[in-house]
Every structure is written in structure tokens, then in C-alpha cells.
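Journal club side-thread
Mid-discussion, someone asked how the predicted structure for our own chain would compare to the paper's figures. Pasting it here so we can look after the session.
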Amino acid sequence: MKGQLFVISAPSGAGKSTVVLEVREKVARVGYSISHTTRKPRAGEQGGREYYFVDKGTFRKMADEGAFVEWANVYRDYYGTSFSALEGQIESGLDVLLDLDIQGARAIRKYFGNSVLIFLVPPSLEVLEARLRARGTDKEKVIEARLKNAKREIAQYGRYDYVVVNDQLEQAVTEVQAIIMAERCKTGRQEPAIRQLFGF
């Protein structure tokens, strides 16, 4: 049985990376697509774990060669998901989590029509602003831009299959886990196993 792609999108500061990390630790047989980016590593980040950190020349060369399923310029840095990062895991039967923006989610759905799109939202814009400021990584103008973009992004929730409100981390993680488990139990995914088990 081939694996399934699960895309999680969220406004910056909504807790997407934390939720993805928790889900990966709690759900068996879940892979993760590590994206390429030209942004500098944040404190504690390691190349090949959070992202593949590359320079802009390398990134553009990969894009020109068609290495990416999707890529985008976000806040002056490039982010991209390579075909190779996905196809090997799917073929091996792993479900794969992707941490992508709205543009990336659309591109994944275009190439992988049965992908599952999950939108993670903060409980309010006020909470989102507090989280962005608590990070201490962005200047005031960047925070203002992120908040402005967040409102536009949240308005796109209808393009997603599921919406999860990240008010309490544990509850949000539980809901994403439930989505993955429910998708695994769908008739279409279970059909090959049922046919094999019962000789249909």
C-alpha cells in the first residue's frame, strides 16, 4: 500500500512546526519531507533536520532543473519541496507530513491529487501576535507583515480538507493524529489489504 501525503499549513507563528514534530513522535509510520530553504538557520536548527539550508544559487539551479514539486519566495527567502523527498517515502508505504504554505499546498494537490490538506489556525489574531513577539526572532516590520498576511491566509481555509485550531497544543496534536488515523481507515486505502486478506 502506498503512503499518503498530509500537508499542514498555517500562518507564521501558529505553531505548525511544533505540531508537526509532536505528531511525528506519536504516530507510527509517518515520514517527513524536509524542505530546502535559503534562509539562515535559527538557533538550535540543524541542516538536514529542520531544513536543507542552501544558498540562492544552488536553490535556483535546482528549481531550473525541475527538482521541486513546489517552491516559493517567502519573506525574501526561497523554500521548496523536492520530488525525491516525497516519492521514495510514498513508494515505501510511509505517510508523509509536509509543513507548507498555502501556495505549496496547492502545488502538492496539483501533483498528488489524493493528498490531505490540514489548515492550522491560532485561536485569535491577538494570540498570534503575542506568539510572534515571544519568539523574539523578527523585527517590528516583519511582525506587522506576518500579521497582515495571516489574515489573508486564514481566509483561504475553505481550500483545505480539515481545520484545526491550535489553542492548546496537546488538543491540536490529538486532532491531527485523529485525521491521519481516519484517512488510513478509508475504504480506498484499505482495499488492497482487504482483497489480500479475504481473497476478493
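Post-session note: The mean pLDDT is 92.
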